[in-house]
C-alpha cells in the first residue's frame, strides 16, 4: 500500500492494545476493533518486525539476549543468543540465525546457572551470569564459545561476598567482563585468562565499591563506553 504498516497508538489511550476486539487472539492488520479504530498491534503483519522466534517451553522464562558478530557464511549478520532462566534440570541458550530467525543450535548450560543477562566479547565468547539459585546461594559466571558450542565453561563466583547475585553484564573494549551485584552496591570486574578456552576461568576479579550509602543498593544494568568509562544503574 506504499506505506510501512507498524504497530502504533490509535485510540488515544496510552499503550498498545494487543487484542482490541477482545476475542482472546492477538490482533493483526485485518482485525476490526471494538472501538472502531484501526488495530494498534499488527502482529506478523508489522512491517518493522523482521521475524518472531519462539524458544524454550512455557514457564522457562527468557531473561537474557545478546548478539555475536555473525558467521562468515551469513554475510555479516549477527546472530542472537537467548537463554532460559527457569528450566529444569539445566538452562539452555539458543542460537538464532541473524538472517532467517531460525534456531540454529541449543546449548546446555552447567547446573545452577540461571541466566539473567549475557554479552559476547571480541573473541566470540558469550558470558552469562547466574542470577538467583536461592536466596543464600551466589550467582555464578559461565561462558560459551559461540564458534564452537561444544566448549562451555563455568561456573565461577566472585570471591568477595558470600551471597551476591549478579544482575547486569557488559564487556569493555579490553575484553573485561563487568557485572552489577544485586545484593551489594558494588560493581565487579572479571579479567579472563585468555591463554586458552580452558583457562578462561582462571582470571582475576576486582570489586569496585560504588558507594558507602546504604540507601544505594542493588547495582543492576551496566555498560562500558569506548572511553573506558563504566556506567551502572542502581536500584533504591
Can you characterise this structure?
The structure is a single chain. The protein has strands at residues 62-67, 80-84, 92-96, 103-108, 117-120, 125-129, 141-145, 152-156, 166-171, 177-181, 186-191, 204-209, 217-224, 230-235. Helices cover 0% and strands 33% of the residues. It starts with 61 loop residues before the first strand and ends with a strand. The protein has no helices and 14 strands. The strands form four sheets. A four-stranded antiparallel beta sheet has the order 1-2-3-4, with no helix packed on it. The chain has a four-stranded antiparallel beta sheet with strand order 5-6-7-8, with no helix packed on it. The protein is mainly β.
Q: Report mean pLDDT, rounded to a whole number.
A: 90
Largest sheet: 4 strands, antiparallel
> Largest sheet, order of strands side by side?
1-2-3-4
The number of helical runs is 0
How would you classify the helix and strand content by structural class? mainly beta
**Residue share in helix:** under 10%
Amino acid at each position: 500500500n506504499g506505506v510501512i504498516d507498524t504497530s502504533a497508538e490509535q485510540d488515544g489511550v496510552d499503550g498498545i492494545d494487543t487484542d482490541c476486539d477482545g476475542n482472546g487472539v492477538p490482533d493483526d492488520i485485518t482485525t476490526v476493533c471494538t472501538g472502531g479504530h484501526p488495530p494498534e498491534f499488527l502482529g506478523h503483519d508489522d512491517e518493522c518486525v523482521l521475524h518472531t522466534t519462539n524458544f524454550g517451553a512455557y514457564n522457562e522464562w527468557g531473561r537474557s539476549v545478546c548478539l555475536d558478530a555473525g558467521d562468515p557464511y551469513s554475510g555479516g549478520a549477527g546472530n542472537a543468543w537467548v537463554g532460559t532462566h527457569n528450566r529444569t534440570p539445566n538452562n539452555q541458550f539458543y542460537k538464532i540465525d541473524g538472517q532467517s530467525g531460525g534456531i540454529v543450535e541449543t546449548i546446555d548450560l552447567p547446573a545452577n546457572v540461571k541466566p539473567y543477562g549475557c554479552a559476547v566479547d571480541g573473541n566470540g565468547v558469550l558470558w552469562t551470569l547466574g542470577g538467583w539459585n536461592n536466596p543464600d546461594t551466589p550467582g555464578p559466571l559461565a561462558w560459551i564459545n559461540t564458534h564452537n558450542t561444544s566448549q562451555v565453561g563455568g561456573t565461577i563466583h566472585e570471591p568477595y561476598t558470600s551471597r551476591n547475585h549478579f544482575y547486569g553484564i557488559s564487556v569493555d573494549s579490553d575484553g573485561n567482563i563487568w557485572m552489577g551485584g544485586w545484593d551489594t552496591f558494588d560493581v565487579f570486574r572479571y579479567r579472563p585468562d585468555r591463554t586458552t578456552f580452558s583457562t578462561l576461568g582462571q582470571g582475576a576479579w576486582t570489586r569496585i565499591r560504588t558507594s558507602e550509602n546504604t540507601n544505594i543498593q542493588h547495582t543492576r544494568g551496566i555498560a562500558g563506553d569506548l572511553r573506558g568509562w563504566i556506567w551502572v544503574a542502581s536500584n533504591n
